[in-house]
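The material for today's practical consists of a large collection of protein records. There is nothing in a record beyond a sequence line and a structure line. As an example, a complete record with its sequence and its C-alpha cells follows:
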Amino acid sequence: MKRTTLGGMVIVAPFALLFLILIAYAISNAVASTMILEGSLSNQVTSADTASLNSNPSDQAALKINPSALTMEDSETTAFQVQGESVDSSVNASVVVMSIFNAVLGFLGVLAVLGMFVCVPLGIYLLATKGKAQKS
C-alpha cells in the first residue's frame, strides 16, 4: 500500500468512525424510545376500553392514547410509569441493554475524538514524507 493511500486512510478513519457511532447512537435511541412507547401504550388499554371496542368495533378511532403520560418514577429506579401502571419487565430489560449499548457507543466516540488528535498528524506526516529509499 502506498504511503499516500495509507496517510489518507489514517486521516479519514477517526472521522468515519465518529460518523458511524453517531448513526448507531441515533438508531439505538429511536429503537429504545419505540420500545418504551409501545410497552407503555399497551398498558394504557384497559379492560373497559377493550370491552367497549369489542361491543362496537367502529369506535376504535375514539380510543385516544396520550404519549405525554410517560413519566419517570424516581431517579433511583428505571421503572417507567404510565398513569400509575408500570411497564413490562421485558421493556425495562431492553432499556437497560440499550443504555449499556449507548454507554459503549459513547466510550467509542471519546476514543474516536482522541484518535483525531493522533491520526490527523500521523496521516499528514505519512502524506508529506517520502518512504525509505529502496536499494536495488
Notes: The two ends are 19 Å apart (CA to CA). The longest helix spans residues 3-44. Residues 1-42+88-136 form one domain. Residues 73-85 have pLDDT under 50 and may be disordered.
